[in-house]
Design brief:
The relative contact order is 0.10. This protein is globular. Helix content is 36%, strand content 21%. Strand 7, helix 6 and strand 8 form a beta-alpha-beta unit. By secondary structure, the protein is of the alpha+beta class.
Length: 362
C-alpha cells in the first residue's frame, strides 16, 4: 500500500486532566486551573484559562503562580482519568483495532480499512469526537492525514474542540508553509538553532541537503529531511511495548549553582512521576543524564529490586547519581529516565556497571 493512501487520525483530548476537573466540579469552570503543583511541585496540566497566562505543564508551581496569581491548584485523580480514558478507547475500537495509545489522552488510529466501511476519515474523526462528548462531556481535537507525523501536527491546528484534515494533494504545500517550531519533534532549542541558520519554514528546511542536515542535527537530520517531504513510514502500533519513560530539560543559561541543580532535579522527579502515573507505569532502573556546556555527556543508573513508587525516591536517587558525576562544570541539560518497566512482557537481560548503592536505601 502506498503511504499516500493511508488514513491516519490523531485524537487528542483538550486539556484532559484540567477539563475532567472542571467537568466534575462546576465551580472550576471558566477559571484558571492547574492539576498538580503544590509546594515545590510542577504543573501536570493546565486549563485553557490558565494557558492564557502562560501556565504550561511541567512548569514549576511557583512560576505558574507568578504568571497567574489567581491560579487554582487541584490534586491529580489518576484513577478518574484512567476510567474516562478507558471509555474513550472503547469508542476508538468501534472503528478500528489499529489503535496506538500515546498516553491516557491521545492516540493514533489507522482507519484506512475500518469496521464501519466509512470512506471518509474526516467523517470518522467527527463521529468519534461527538461520541466522546456525548459519553464523557469532554471535548477532543483531531488531525487527519496520510501519516502519523502529519496527523499529530494537524490535531493541534484547530484546538480546542476542532479538527483538521491535510489531504494528500495538499501535503507538500502545507509542509512548505509550516513554521519549523510547529514540526512535531522540534523543541525550543532546536527551533532557535534553525532560526540562527535562517530556517524558518518547511520550505527553508527543504532547501537544505541531507548531508548538511545530518552534519547540523546528527541522526535527527534524516528525520527532518524526510518529514518535510511528507515521508514518515511509521505504522500505527497497537501492541507497542514501552521500554522507558524519560523527561529532560535544556537550559538557556548553563547551570552551575547547586541549589538550582537541586530544584531542577526536584522538578524533573515530579514530572517523571506524573508521566508514569498518567500511563500506569512502574519501573526499577533510574538513569540520570547530564550534558555539560561543552556538550560532553554523562549518564549513570541505579536499579532497585522493587519498583520506584514516589517522586521523593526519584529525587533522592538522582541526587546520589549527581554526586557521582566526573566533572564539576556548567550544565546545559539534565534528564531522568526510568526503565525495566512493568510494561515489558519479556525479561530484559542487561549488563550494568556495578556500583555500591546499598547506602541509597537507608
Amino acid at each position: 500500500m502506498s503511504f499516500l493512501s493511508r488514513k491516519i487520525i490523531h485524537v487528542d483530548m483538550d486539556a484532559f486532566y484540567a477539563s475532567v476537573e472542571q467537568h466534575d466540579n462546576p465551580a472550576l469552570r471558566g477559571k484558571p486551573v492547574a492539576v498538580g503543583g503544590g509546594h515545590r511541585g510542577v504543573v501536570s496540566a493546565a486549563s485553557y484559562e490558565a494557558r492564557k497566562y502562560g501556565v504550561r505543564s511541567a512548569m514549576p508551581s511557583k512560576t505558574a503562580k507568578e504568571k497567574c496569581p489567581h491560579l487554582i491548584f487541584v490534586p491529580p485523580r489518576f484513577a478518574r482519568y484512567k476510567e474516562i480514558s478507558k471509555k474513550i478507547r472503547e469508542i476508538f475500537y468501534e472503528y478500528t483495532d489499529l489503535v496506538e495509545p500515546l498516553s491516557l489522552d491521545e492516540a493514533y488510529l489507522d482507519v484506512t480499512e475500518n469496521k464501519k466501511q466509512i470512506e471518509s476519515a474526516n467523517q470518522i474523526a467527527r463521529e468519534i469526537r461527538q461520541k466522546i462528548y456525548e459519553q464523557t462531556g469532554l471535548t477532543a481535537s483531531a488531525g487527519i492525514s496520510i501519516n502519523k507525523f502529519l496527523a499529530k501536527v494537524a490535531s493541534d491546528i484547530n484546538k480546542p474542540n476542532g479538527q483538521k484534515t491535510i489531504h494528500p494533494d495538499k501535503v507538500e504545500k502545507f509542509l512548505e508553509e509550516l513554521p519549523v517550531e510547529k514540526f512535531y519533534g522540534v523543541g525550543k532549542v532546536t527551533a532557535n538553532k534553525m532560526f540562527s541558520l535562517a530556517i524558518y519554514k518547511g520550505k527553508d528546511l527543504k532547501n537544505k541537503p541531507l548531508e548538511e542536515l545530518t552534519r547540523l542535527f546528527g541522526k535527527s537530520g534524516k528525520y527532518y529531511y524526510d518529514v518535510v517531504r511528507g515521508i514518515h513510514h511509521s505504522h500505527v502500533k497497537p501492541h507497542r511495548i514501552q521500554k522507558s519513560v524519560a523527561v529532560e530539560q535544556t537550559f538557556f543559561e548553563d547551570l552551575f549553582d547547586q541549589q538550582q541543580i537541586d530544584e531542577k532535579l526536584q522538578n524533573l522527579s515530579e514530572e517523571l512521576y506524573n508521566r508514569l502515573q498518567k500511563n500506569n507505569i512502574l519501573g526499577r532502573s533510574l538513569t540520570l543524564k547530564i550534558k555539560y556546556k561543552d556538550f560532553s555527556l554523562f549518564t549513570r543508573s541505579f536499579t532497585k529490586e522493587e519498583y520506584f513508587t514516589s517522586p521523593e525516591q526519584f529525587f533522592k536517587i538522582s541526587k546520589k547519581l549527581w554526586e557521582l558525576r566526573p566533572f564539576n562544570k556548567a550544565v546545559r541539560l539534565l534528564g531522568l529516565s526510568l526503565s525495566q518497566l512493568n510494561t515489558e512482557q519479556k525479561k530484559q537481560i542487561s549488563v550494568q556497571l556495578k556500583i555500591p548503592f546499598e547506602e541509597f536505601e537507608n
